[in-house]
Amino acid sequence: MPILFRLVLREALPGLLMVLLLAACAQPPLESTAAASVQRRADIIPDTAGYQRRAPQDPNGIGRYYQGRQIAHVMGHEGADWLERPGRDEQEGTAILLRELQLKPTDVVADIGAGTGYFTFRISPLVPRGKVLAVDIQPEMIAELQRNKAKKQAYNVEPVLGTVENPNLPNSGVDVVLIVDAYHEFDHPREMMRAIRNALRPGGRLALIEYRAEDPNVPIKRIHRMSEEQARREVEAVGLQFVENRTALPQQHMLIFRRP
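The chain above was modelled as a monomer; its predicted structure follows.
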């Protein structure tokens, strides 16, 4: 290397190193760039599950919301007497509901949130060549269902212990699913409804019964009522098709959906 070039390089090198060092310091660390990118994506991508956690607006509900609706506390087995209360048949139009289900003798019916079996054992004689899958998530309720099954000799009733995310029903093995005043208490409504959709046979029906939020005269706390609009939005989100709202019940919606 010529002597002159070496002298020039030796003089210029410290300045060049300083420029490179300053340029490097001006760049944010790689980890910071990645973290910022993840945060930007989190700000842009919506919560597709539809769930949110925030402080309870209503003390009768949990701090969990689904598609804007606060989920209600589950009624424990200690409140079983409420399910069998005198006058319920007249207040809720039980005979009307059973008629509107339009059951066939061979139907397999799933009663979700069966509790003590108020509907289970009324449906049982209507499906003599079918069966009733009585689903509940509380072992105490399952034990009560077993006792009532033996007492009533309802041999086509099968108590099923479910979970908060899965009713443990056979895949494509159910003709009709009935949910009475229980859906609004599901901790994981999206997961439960997906499982119910998968349990229905193609063309199978869901009858969703909920106290009408639109009617101020219904003597039930607001968090234990649902509007037709809200219920349809949530159920249709899992791929079930709305058929109709049968308006024959005194205080409740009877929303019918079907699996395509």
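The two ends are 82 Å apart (CA to CA).
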